[in-house]
Amino acid sequence: MKPGIHESLRRPTDERPIVVLHGDTRELIRQLPDDTFQCAVTSPPYWGVRDYGVKHQIGAEPDLHAYVKDLVDIFREVRRVLKPDGTFWLNIGNTYTSGGRKWRDDDEKNKGRGMSYRPPTPPGLKKKDLIGIAWLLALECQKDGWYLRNDIIWYKPNCQPESVRDRFTVSHEYLFLFSKSEHYLFDQEAIKERTADGNGVKNRRTVWSINTEPCPEAHFAVFPRALVRPCLLAGSRSNDLVLDPFYGAGTVGIVAKELGRRCVGIEIKDEFIAIADKRTSSVQASLIPLV
User: Fold this and answer.
1) Which of 26, 50, 96, 281 is the most exposed place for a label (fewest CB within 10 A)?
2) Which fold has domain 3-9+21-281?
């Protein structure tokens, strides 16, 4: 294990509740110590959806099953570094086959849409097929040892418009709740929701209506804070350490700071780390001391 990584985890401070490790998560996560994090929350790159301009980037594998394997291998390490009663919250969306197209232009309304590559149609599928990759990944994680506890529908009222004419506009993604063990930390009281009449509370349901959040610096919608907040409230306590192995623009760190948790993120792109630093620097930290 690299001493620098170990020290970052062992000695967080009030002034530095968020630590971002710069590099490929496939390498860095193997250097993290066992049984360290109370929960992990992440949204990895989706297969064949965006070009991040990174060599050997996850999501650009020519083979669908190689992509799934890459993520299952990473999430096996996530399970290792979680505490025995830890949870893992995975946001992932389904995608379609590319229809044989090799590239994709930028779009004025979606500047992150342009791609220099498009993966081929996987064997056994057809052009225009819905792949169902979210469930493929979830079931492979289950086979690998995770307890699959919930499939949550993230409904996006302000979803990206689509110009398709032969199917419905996609307005949802999945949030899967996994646990490391049969029994785990889950603070149900912290995430109860109001009853319809507003006079009481009830257990939170599995369809969450949450708007996407724009991020002008990154040119695409980011992981919304309102999606992360219930995960951290249910899956961690004040001052707990949480992990995001695909840190991106830093939303998990922002919410962790707001709620008085500590966070370790792993991110490969310099630009995203700079964006995350800018976003988290203006966030008001919890008044709970971080010791």
Assistant:
1) 281
2) Rossmann fold (3.40.50)
